[in-house]
C-alpha cells in the first residue's frame, strides 16, 4: 500500500481493493467521457487508478478506461445529434462556452472526422470534438470507432508514462 492510499478513508480503500473497483472506475470514465467529471483532470485518471487499484490490473484498467470514456462520449455525441448546439449551450452541465465550441466546430469543418481521434489523443482537447461530430452527419458507428481509437492512444500513453516514468504518484 502506498503512502497515498493509506490516507484514504477505509470505505474507499476497501472499495478499491474489492471486486467492484473496476465497476467504480468504469462509471468514473463514463462521466469523464461525457465531459461531466469536472473535479479531476482526465490526464490523472489512469495514473490515479494505477496508484489506487494497482499495476497488476493495468490491462483491465485500460479496457475499463477506453470502454467507459467511449460510452460517455457516445452519450454526449447522441445528445448533440438529437438536441443540437443551442440545446447544449443552454444546459448548465455543459461547460463549454460558445467561443470554444465555435473554435472546435471550425477544426471539425476544416479537417473532418480525422480530428476526433486526434483530439481524443491530445492533452487539453480531449473529447472537445465530440459535439461538432454529433452536430455533423457522422454515423454513431463511425464516431465510436474514431473516439475509441483516440482514447486507446491517450489512456495507453498515460499508463506508459506512469509505469515507465518512475511512478511519480506512488
From TrEMBL:
Q: How does it sit in the membrane?
A: Multi-pass membrane protein
InterPro entries noted in UniProt: DedA_domain, VTT_dom
Q: Which UniProt keywords apply?
A: Cell membrane, Membrane, Transmembrane, Transmembrane helix
Where's it found, cell-wise? Answer: Cell membrane
Q: What are the annotated GO cellular component locations? A: plasma membrane
Q: Which domain of life is it from?
A: Archaea
Domain annotation VTT: ranges: 58-153
Please indicate if the UniProt record lists Membrane as a keyword.
Answer: yes
Signal peptide positions on this chain: none
One Pfam family this chain carries? VTT_dom
Q: Which residues cross the membrane?
A: 20-39, 59-80, 143-164
Official protein name in the record: VTT domain-containing protein
